[in-house]
Amino acid sequence: MRGQKLFNAVLRTEDSAARKGRSETMLLKRNSCLAARYYFYGCLRKKTYEDILNLMMTEFFISPDRIARIIQQNISLVKEMKDRKLTKSQLRDNWPYFKW
């Protein structure tokens, strides 16, 4: 097919042995950020559980069920943030691309 060689040269890599799929590092970062947003909405903004899930669904493009499972798996992060009484400015320092 015309243009196939250009497509392969630009978009394909020669290293077929490279790991494919989800990056564990990126998932850990995402989950840490989810936990921080959950803490922010729940502890600092005093939102209801349902409101938190709906807000996070629009921010992260993940279903509320999946968000709830991720938070449940990372509840220790949320508890740690609550014990340390993180402030909005501390959250902003760690995740500056969000509006805290």
Detailed description of the structure:
Helices cover 68% and strands 0% of the residues. It has 100 residues and is an all-alpha fold. It has one domain (22-91). α2 (24-44) packs antiparallel against α3 (49-60) and α2 (24-44) crosses α5 (75-84). The longest helix has 21 residues, at 24-44. The radius of gyration is 19 Å and the shape is elongated.
Indicate how many domains the architecture comprises.
Answer: 1
Low-confidence stretches: none
Strand content: under 5%
Choose one word for the global shape.
Answer: elongated
For the largest beta-sheet, the strand count, sense and barrel status come to: none
Count of individual beta strands:
0
**Total of DSSP H or I helical runs spanning 4+ residues:** 6
Task: Spell the H/E element sequence.
Answer: HHHHHH
- Mean pLDDT metric: 90
| Helix/sheet category | mainly alpha
**Radius of gyration from the alpha-carbon trace, in angstroms:** 19 Å
Distance between the termini: 50 Å
Estimated helix fraction:
55-70%
Give a quick summary of the entry:
With 100 residues, this protein is mainly alpha-helical. The chain has helices spanning 4-11, 24-44, 49-60, 64-73, 75-84, 88-94. The chain has one domain (22-91).
